[in-house]
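Sequence in, structure out. Go.
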Amino acid sequence: MKKLLAILLSLAMVFTLAACGGSASSTPAASTPAADGGDAASTPAADGEDPYAALGDFTMVVGHAQPEGNPRYVSMEKFAADVAEKTNGHVTVQVYGNGQLGTEKEMLEQVVAGTVQGMRGGQFDFSPRLLMFTLPFLTQTRAEVTALLQSDLAKSVCAEAEGETGTVIISLCDAGGYRQFSNSKHPIKTPDDLKGLKMRTNGMKTIDLTFTTLGATTTTIPYSDLYMGLKTGVADGQENPWVNVQGMKFYEVQPYFTEVNYQFHPDPFYINAAWWNALPEEYRTIIQECADEMSTYNDQLIDENSEAAKQEIIASGAEVYEPTAEELEAFKTAMQPVYDQCIAEGICTEEELTVMQKIVADAK
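Output:
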């Protein structure tokens, strides 16, 4: 029923967008240069003139899976407001959060098909090479994460998406902070403590490989259904950042947490390439600038909210175990097969792994 509702909503949007001139099939008006020869995207209107009036009006429908209050939700609201302000209201961003348009995979399929214009989320089915940034224990600090996501390697991998999927990735930020383990059976202090547990994944290969390498079995459950899946025992445990655990209240059905900081996820902002390339250049410049600002704001929110979310989880009565340096080293050592498998499957090459490790080592 939920999938059918998402499809019907998406189809309704197609007709709405066609009526207002914001669809991928619209023919945008010619770009208008600034009055003094500068860029119209960065030159304010003079004497009440609207420099974008001749460019046409566009509507950009964007979906994501996170609930109200989550950094992705909040930063997307800022993005929508910024785009409206900087285009004098000629580009309207309609944001549908909390999985209203379906699962992350379904939303990305809609972007590829052009029935919606964009989605944000850690969905890599169509761009599996982005998984190289999710190798377990690859990074340990915010500076290292930022250095990776802003690197030439990351830009190169993102550029591959257009030719392979018909999407443009206009930003790459953090999907929620470092990810932690939780379960309903017992504390996880060593790799052996995962043996025999049924752990939920979103289908991401590096998560599956991490758990199976540690002796757990995996089951795929959509994010929006995860609370009920944990409550009913479909899965014993899961992995998510503190802000996601707090926002989705997973601590109500998961008594044991381990602050293992094993992985972060890139948060690509996918845009339908045909729609993007049909926009006037001035609008593309503005949207790109707003997306860059949104990414920085998103990561700031994650850093500010992660510790507070963790403390709320502790206050709820859940147990949060913090491994010693020696215990963490045991987890890291156990991950070598995951690295080997990702290289064998072409997610990254040995040379790219070396580049990533150098980027991380040089990050300040």
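Check: The chain has two domains: 2-124+144-175+267-304, 179-264+306-362. The longest strand covers residues 167-174.
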